[in-house]
Give the backbone structure.
Amino acid sequence: MSDKQLQYTDGLAVQEAKPELKRPQLYKVILLNDDYTPMEFVIVVLERFFHKSREEATRIMLHVHQRGIGVCGLYTREVAETKVRQVMVFSADNQHPLQCTMEPE
Ligand code: TYC
């Protein structure tokens, strides 16, 4: 379908419709490695806030542990901001230094 369509009224006027909405910018939510946060805690974070299976959570955690950084998922801006905040609050509440951030895809 073209991005502009004609809208018909009852003969009084013909007006261009608004173009279709663009897809929203997506953001990568990123976990950073550190030397102190337990591996099990990072797995729980990935299960709880990113709905990963234990296997996928373990794979992502090990990737971050080995490479220093890793992507947990792609989200619209407000959802990504919420996930970053949830991880940071959960980590601080448990006295872990785990860092989570986001960047445009
Ligand atoms: N490097 C941590 C350890 O050896 C584990 C870890 C993995 C920490 C991923 C943070 O984002 C992280 N206990």
Notes: Residues 31-35, 37-39, 42, 61, 64-65, 98 surround L-tyrosinamide (CB under 6 Å).
